[in-house]
Amino acid sequence: MQSAFKFLLNVAVLHAVGQGKLSLEQSVHSLPSDTYKDTFSPLQDMYPAANVDVPLRQLPELWVGHPDNTANDILLRQMGGTAPVQQYLDSLGLQGIQIRDSEASMHDDERRQYRNTGEPATFVKLLCMLAENSLLTHGNTKYLLSIMSSSPSFPNRICGLLPAGTIVAYKTGTAGYNNNMAAATNDVALITLPTGGA
Question: Do 23 and 58 contact (CB within 8 A), yes or no?
């Protein structure tokens, strides 16, 4: 899935917010162990020594709007790791998705990138649930879609292929190149046409 799994984590986090287990207004402490070299992270660039409190609200905006790997893993730690996120997705009947590794784990061993997988039909099912407002609270659904719709990542992929005025709430997942080959190039998107249809 590459960074497309950040979208799934965001859904799980906002579900926890809706249940009162987390709050968008709470502070989250970043640890030195959250940081590592050679990764894309505006958060890490701002606070290279870590040991700072960051509003939880800022983290989804970083790793959905930008592929911030450190912000992603801090929130994954707040959720208790990959297992609780997987359990939540399973509870939704989304068994076609497997989340086993964090960004740091995949950074340590690139072979692990193949263990985070998602079937396209399962993503479509999840996007339909989101569009029908049956997944999260109305406010959290609106918040998530607004972040995804304002993402600056890869504007010439899905967004560049659609008519002007089309609202695209999306998350990309892009592998680096090894021997002129990328492991995966993904786009997960909820598209609202100018006519209002999704």
Answer: no
* Residue 3: active-site member: yes
Query: Which one, of 149, 160, 156, 146, lies nearest residue 191 by Cα?
Result: 149
Residue 122 sits in a domain whose CATH number is 3.40.710.10
Determine if the pTM surpasses 0.70. Answer: yes
Annotated catalytic residue within 3, 30, 41, 102:
3
Give the integer Cα–Cα distance in Å for 49 and 1: 29
pLDDT band at 64 (very low <50, low <70, confident <90, very high): low
Residue 156 covered by a domain: yes
- Distance separating alpha carbons of residues 191 and 42, to the nearest angstrom: 27
Q: Is residue 121's pLDDT more than 90?
A: yes
Q: What is the pLDDT of residues 76-117, one digit of tens each?
A: 999 999 999 999 999 999 989 999 999 999 989 989 999 999
Catalytic residue among 30, 61, 103, 153: 103
Task: Give me 170's structure tokens.
Answer: 């999306």
